[in-house]
Amino acid sequence: MISLIIIIALLNTALGFVMAVYVLPPSQLPIPRFKPPKISLLRARHQPHPDPTSLLEGGSLADEIPIETAADTIGDSSLEKAQDEVDQSPAEKVPELPTLEPVESGPESFPESDDSAESSEQGESIPAEDDVHDLLDGRISAEPIESIDQIPQEWLSTLDEYGIEAAGLVEVSAHVLRLEVGDYRDRIVRVDNELRKMEGRLKAEQLQKSIDELRQINQTWLTKQAESANHLGSRIDTLSGHQATSSLLLDILENQQARIETLFSNLAELDVNGDPATCERRIFTEIRQLLDLAHLLRDRMFEMLLIIKKTANQLAEINHSMTIDKLTNLPNRAGMEKMFYELFLSDPSRSRQVSCGLMDLDRFTRLMDQYGPDVCDRILRAVGILLDSLLRKNRGFDRIARFDGQRFLLLMADTGPRGAMSAMERFRQTLEKTKFDLADQIIKVTAQCGVAELGPTETMESFFGRLEAATEAAKREGRNCTALDEGHGPKKVIPPNYHIRGRVMML
Questions:
Q1: Residue at which a domain ends, from 311, 335, 368
Q2: Rounded to whole angstroms, how far apart are CA atoms 370 and 368?
Q3: In Å, how far are 108, 472, 479 from 111, measured between CA atoms?
Q4: What is the structure's pLDDT at 152?
Q5: Which helix (H) or strand (E) segment is 433 a member of?
Q6: Exposed/middle/buried for 337, CB within 10 Å: 0-12, 13-18, 19+?
Q7: DSSP letter at 59?
Q8: What stretch of H or E contains 409?
Q9: Does residue 129 fall inside a structural domain?
Q10: Based on the domain organization, do 210 and 259 belong to the same domain?
C-alpha cells in the first residue's frame, strides 16, 4: 500500500513538470518577483525616452575610471569609442576598479533616520503615514478628471495669480492647499529666525510672545484647512468621478489637523518662567515638527496632483511652475516625473541603459536643530548649485532633481550601474571636500548615496524602492559612502580617491 502511494505521488510530480514545461505558456510560469519597500506615490507611466552620453564637468568619466567601467558607462555599442577616449586621455594613473563589499542585512527600520529642513516624511517625532500611503496606493489612480463649477472665487483668483489652470474642485483644492501651506511655512520660519537672533538671551516675555505668535499662525492655518475640508465635504456626493479622491484629501487634512493640534498643545504647556535654555530647545523642536508637517502636506498635494495629471494623460502639459523646486531651482518631484516621461518617449521598448543615483544629505535633523530652517534652506540651495555645476549639460541626457527634502536624484541615460556609481562617488567626494561658509563659520556636509540601474521591465516603484534601500544601506554602513545595487541587493562601494580639490561656498 505504501509503495502504491509513493508511485502515485511520483506520477503526480512528473505530470506537473510536463504541464509546466510543455503546456503552460512562459507568461504563466511562476517567477519570483522583487517586492521593494513601500514608498510614496511616485509611479511613472513607462511611456514613451531622448539622447545619449554625458557625465561630469571637467572631462568624461572614461578619463577617470577603468576601461571596464567606461564601457559600462556608455553602453556596449560604444565600447571602441570609450577605449579611444581612454587612450587619448592625459597621461595619469587610472584608478583601481572600485570594489564592493556585501552589506549585511539589517533591521527594516534603519538607525538615526535623518530629516530635512525642507521636507520630512519620516520625522523622528512624527508618526508614520502608513494610513495615508494605503489610501494613495488604492484610491486615486484610476479616476477620471471632470470639471466642477462649484469652486470659490477666492480659490480661482489664487490660481489665476500663479497662472495655474485646474480642471475640477479636487484639483483646485490640492493646488490651493499646496500654495497656502508654503505661506504658512514661511511665517513659521520667520518666528524661528527672530528667536534665533536672541538665542541664549531670551526672557520669559519674549518666549511667551513667540508662543502666542505661533498659536495665531496655526489657528489661522487650521481655519483655512477646515474651510477647504468643509467646502469639499459638502459637495463630495456631487463629485461622481472624484469621490474617492475627495475622501482621500479629507483624510489627509483630518490627519494633519490632529497632529498640528497635538504639537501645539505641547507648546502651550511650556513653562516660560522655568529654565530659558530648556524652553528654547523645546520651542525649536516643536517648530521643526510643525515644519515637517507642512512639508508632508505639501508633498501629499504634489503627489495627488501628479496622479490626477497622469490619469488624464496630461503629464506633458503640466504647468512649468509645478515642475521646479522654488528653493534650489532644480526639477522637483513633478519635474522628475516629466524627465522620465521625456526620456522614455524616444525609447518605448526601453532598450537604453538608464541608471540613477540618490544622494541623501547626512544628519540633516542635527543641522536643523543647530542652525534652524533658514540656514538649512541655504545649505540645500548651495548643495543644489554645487551638484548642478558638476553635471555636463552640453550633451546626453543627464539630469539632476531634488527628490525630496535633503535628497537629490541624478538620472543618467546610456549609463550602466558602475559608471553611475563612479559619477555619484565624484559628487559625494566633491561635497565632502566643500566648505559651506556661514558668516565665517564653516559648516561641513556629507552624504550617503545609493545607485541602481532601471531594469527594462521594472516598475518605477520597484526602482525607487531599490534606490532608497541602497541609500539606507550606505547609511547603515557608516554614512558618507555609496552603495550599489546591481540586481542582487545593495553592496557598499570601496571607491578610488578622485583627488577632488576643495572649494568654499558662501551661504
A1: 311
A2: 5
A3: 10, 9, 11
A4: 83
A5: helix 417-433
A6: buried
A7: B
A8: strand 407-413
A9: no
A10: yes
The burial of 330, by beta-carbon neighbours within 10 Å (0-12 exposed, 13-18 middle, 19 or more buried), is given as buried
Residue located via cell numbers 518617449: 345
| 504, containing H or E segment | strand 503-506
In a domain, 25, yes or no: no
How far apart CA 281 and CA 370 sit, in angstroms, is 10
Three cell numbers, residue 505: 561656498
Question: Is this prediction's pTM over 0.90?
Answer: no
Per residue in 58-90, pLDDT (tens digit) is: 333 333 333 233 333 333 333 233 333 333 333
Neighbours of 38 (CB within 10 A): 11
- What is the span of the domain harbouring residue 229? 145-311
Going by DSSP bridges, is the β-strand pair 354-361/407-413 parallel, antiparallel, or unpaired?
Answer: antiparallel
- C-alpha distances in Å from residue 50, one per residue of 17, 411, 418: 45, 13, 22
Question: Which residues are CB-neighbours of 245 under 8 A, at least 6 positions away?
Answer: 139, 140, 143, 170, 239, 304, 308
Q: Tell whether 319 is covered by a domain.
A: no
Whether residue 268 sits in one domain with residue 151: yes
Same domain, 348 and 480: yes
Indicate the DSSP class of residue 26.
G
H-assigned helices in 119-168: 130-139, 153-161
pLDDT over 50 (residue 231): yes
Q: In angstroms, rounded to a whole number, what is the distance separating the alpha carbons of residues 251 and 30?
A: 38
Which residue type, as a one-letter code, is found at position 2?
I
Burial class (CB in 10 A: 0-12, 13-18, 19+), 339: buried
CA atoms within 13 A on the CB side of 100: 19
Number of domains the chain is built from: 2
Question: Tens digit of pLDDT for each residue in 394-438?
Answer: 767 889 999 988 999 999 988 899 999 999 999 999 999 999 999
Note whether 482 and 474 are within 8 A (CB). yes
pLDDT digits (tens, 9 = 90+) for 157-196: 888 888 887 777 888 888 889 899 999 999 999 999 999 9
- With a CB cutoff of 8 Å and minimum separation 6, the contacts of 74 are 52, 53, 62, 81, 82, 414, 415, 419
Q: What cell does 437 get?
A: 561658509
Query: How many alpha carbons fall within 13 Å on the CB side of residue 373?
Result: 29
Q: Tell me whether strands 434-438 and 503-506 are parallel, antiparallel or unpaired.
A: parallel
Residue 41 gets which letter from DSSP? S
